[in-house]
Amino acid sequence: MRRRRRALGFGALALLAAAVAALIADAYGARATRGYGALRPVVVLAADLPAGRRIGPREVNGALERRRVPVRFAPPDALALPAEALGLVARAPLPAGSYLLGAQLSVSGREGRRGGRRLGGGRRPVEIAVSGAGALLAGGPSPAGAKVDVIVTGEPTGPGAGRTYIAAARVPLLAIAPAVEEVGTGATANATLGLTKRQALRLIAAESFARKITLLPDG
């Protein structure tokens, strides 16, 4: 009985200590906010990015981090979300630990060489890996500039085939080229699409769980 009372006493002391620690942390955070001002989200580089590197889903998930810093310390054009850098290219080497600024990024590639073409409707160029691109890559005029539907096929969760659905409809295809690691006739390609932020985030997630992502020419 005594041991039980002792254990209950230790447990109560541990809960009291945790509550006191939380109060101290909250008070410190409040003092820091009062001392340095309001906080705003910024993107900080967790790894070096070389000049000319296109920022794709791998960089967004591994090389970019979202943090909150006092407004007075944040550069005016610092990005607020890693997804804002999707499809853009580093103008110069970007060192780890630095803020990611809008002025450090640009649109390059084929659409950039055509005079810095801007996409309307809040779209930006995003590169994704697609399958079943043999027909698009076959001879004939370049498919760049066409509208395509992005089809995602998920892994099956039970008997039967996985779910197939349109993740993005009638999006502009800006460029498409065989992936470097393509072997033989495997129709794996890197496609640059003009996507909204919501479409880009949906397709980033799909690249993690989907069996394949394919492009279907519109019309």
What brief labels describe this structure?
219 residues, alpha+beta, Type Iii Antifreeze Protein Isoform Hplc 12, 2 domains, five-stranded antiparallel sheet, two-stranded antiparallel ribbon, 5 helices, 9 strands, globular
Would you mind describing this structure in some detail?
- 28% of the residues lie in helices and 29% in strands.
- It is built from 5 helices and 9 strands.
- The protein is α+β, with helices and mostly antiparallel strands and 219 residues long.
- The longest helix has 35 residues, at 2-36.
- The strands form 3 sheets. A 5-stranded antiparallel sheet has the order 5-8-7-6-9, with helices on one face. The chain has a two-stranded antiparallel ribbon with strand order 1-2. A two-stranded antiparallel sheet has the order 3-4.
- It has 2 domains: 39-106, Antifreeze-like/N-acetylneuraminic acid synthase C-terminal domain (Type Iii Antifreeze Protein Isoform Hplc 12, Alpha-Beta Complex), CATH 3.90.1210.10; 110-217, no CATH class.
Strands side by side in the biggest sheet: 5-8-7-6-9
Number of helices: 5
**What series of H and E elements makes up the topology?**
HEHEEEHEHEEEHE
β content, as a range? Answer: 25-35%
Largest sheet: 5 strands, antiparallel
- Rg, Cα atoms, Å: 24 Å
Q: Structurally, how many domains make up the residues?
A: 2
Q: How many strand segments?
A: 9
Question: What ranges have pLDDT less than 50 throughout 5 or more consecutive residues?
Answer: 109-117, 181-187
Kindly, what is the distance between the CA atoms of the first and last residues, rounded to a whole number of angstroms?
79 Å
Class by helix and strand content? alpha+beta
